Amino acid sequence: MAALCHKRQSWQTPFAQFTSGENLSKTFFISIAAQDDEELQHTVEYIFKNADRPENVFVGIALTAMSGKILKQAKSLAKKYNVEIDFVKQRMNDLSTIGIGKGRSRASKLYKDQDYMIQIDCHSFFDKSWDSNFIQYFEEAKEVLGDDRFVLTAIPPVYEYCCSKHKDPIKSGPDTRYPYYVLGEFFVDVVPKWSELDVSIAREEKFLPSSKVCPAFIMGDKEFAKDPGIYEKATFYDEDLTQTFNLFSRGFAFVFPNVKDLPIRHLDSDGIVKGHDRFFLLNYLDEEMQEKLHLNLKKEYRAFAKSVQGSKEAEDYKKYSKVDLIKGFFSRNVNVVPESFRL
After folding, report:
1. Cα–Cα distances in angstroms (integers) from residue 45 to residues 50, 55, 75, in the given order
2. Which of the four pLDDT bands, split at 50, 70 and 90, describes residue 273?
């Protein structure tokens, strides 16, 4: 085991050299940022057991954890599958290691030239033949857009467990969720707020333009994987807007797959049972440090928004999404779904 730094270590099993080719040989990199999450081991199991071609799948995990049990489980995964773990020890009230941007960034750097990259949360379910289905969706979307500078993105549908004794996950509502900005509301006072809806009720098109990316599911090709637009200083709510803007600035279109039963699902907090539990950011902090974390989030998001304010990219994004990165959603007379994939 090679030491990366005084508190970071890497475990990796040998994996095949991945090459491009026909769809049967297309390769996947799954990027996962994880904390002390009991669902992580199940997520990785679902990824490999439910893939049509598991030999073409590589998972990179940035694990930040206090629990020796979670670390042991992660090491076991690295021995069993094509998995690489980048580990950082978490301590109580240590803000230096906390933040989704840090984790997403570490995980993305484990990419090794696979054909597709999928960014997910560490508590996700992958359905049977997920790899074949996602290749089909991506290539279909490419035909619809007429170019390949885009990502597929959505708030995944939900899964849960009926009880701690029942090992198999259950698909439950809501279905694949479309994000939209909420007029005049903000997260932690500064981040323009978004919510979700089921657009399949009103729209029949298989692919729809999206006003933002949803970090719990983003799929792109090698061009996306080279720079997925992650803002390393993002704490939590701010990751959506910062990653969205960074990708938009690079010319990426955001494509929503209007499929009710998307082959990836998300374990929301309401569905947590014993054996599938997880720590949240605030669990690592006392009240004083929680307040400091929120102040830092506000400070860093304001700094990001102000740094791009007035730029051509910010004005273009405002025209496309009808949202100002600082002022929020500013137009009442606009459809929830943008009119086109690009300006």
Report:
1. 8, 13, 13
2. confident
